[in-house]
Amino acid sequence: MNGILPLWKEKGMTSHDCVFKLRKILRTKKVGHTGTLDPQVEGVLPICIGQATRIAEYLTDAGKTYEAVVSIGRTTETEDAEGETVEQDISYKKVTKQQLLDALATLTGVIEQTPPMYSAVKVNGKRLYEYARKGETVERPSRKVTIYSLELLSDEEVYEGNEITFRIRIACSKGTYIRTLAVQIGEQLGYPAHMASLVRTASGTFSAKNCVTLKQVEEAVKEDKINEIILPIEYALSSYPFIEITQSIEKQILNGQILPIHALLKENDKIVFSKGDKALAVYVPHPSKEGLMKPEKMFPELS
């Protein structure tokens, strides 16, 4: 069993919970997720099975799309609705649509974020949430992330009240904290804020329309239809150029040899060599030998 299972993670489960359950359902140990989703977040979580675990890092590194509800008027320890209130502004607020759009525009592009204390980022060998649970605060390294687009989904012209909320859609790079982004939006507007809810609607080439629930996976196994919902490794690699191998280089590719660089690697960071539409190897420019390329991933069992 090799491929990607596009799972819709439901609320209340950790990403590891999903992997644990799928190992039992599919009766295979070679199962891995492609980036954690907090328990209170639902959405797209591609699961790698068999040889597809070799490309899990590609899916983890891929861009993500989210839909979030931002709440203006209160910040929390965790920067989401689950945490204890840190600061609250109960004044009557009035924010125009244009003010919101201006705030979102300011946070589009390359921005800097400081990971929240309640996060899995490691500092001095310990995860930040381990410090936070003990009431300890440590210096956190800031990071640069890219917000490709930040779209206002709510269409009111004026948002007013003691606490105001609105929906946004975010397309972003790996490592972006939407909780922190919600706080940053509040800062642009001059108020405390937190993320009220979050759904991941896409991860790389996988979207909500591809996804199945754990219950649907169980039913597919019972009905012997699991292969109908597991997508091939090639689907996950579809954003890279595919090159059908010729007989002259087939043996070299299958042996994972270093070869003269392919012209397509001058404008792409990876290329996929395939045979009969089956991926055999992912090649990248050689890091130290100019003009050459080397295999980064091999899939011998698929050939």
Automatic annotation (TrEMBL):
Gene Ontology molecular function terms on file: RNA binding; tRNA pseudouridine(55) synthase activity
Active site as annotated: 38
Boundaries of every tRNA pseudouridylate synthase B C-terminal domain copy: 179-237
Record's keyword terms, sorted: Isomerase, tRNA processing
Statement: the UniProt record of this protein carries the keyword tRNA processing: yes
Domain of life of the native organism: Bacteria
InterPro entries found in the cross-reference section: PsdUridine_synth_cat_dom_sf, PsdUridine_synth_N, tRNA_psdUridine_synth_TruB, TruB_C
Pfam families noted in UniProt: TruB_C_2, TruB_N
Catalyzed reactions: uridine(55) in tRNA = pseudouridine(55) in tRNA
Enzyme class: isomerase
Family: Belongs to the pseudouridine synthase TruB family. Type 1 subfamily.
Reported function: Responsible for synthesis of pseudouridine from uracil-55 in the psi GC loop of transfer RNAs.
Protein name: tRNA pseudouridine synthase B
Organism of provenance: Ureibacillus endophyticus
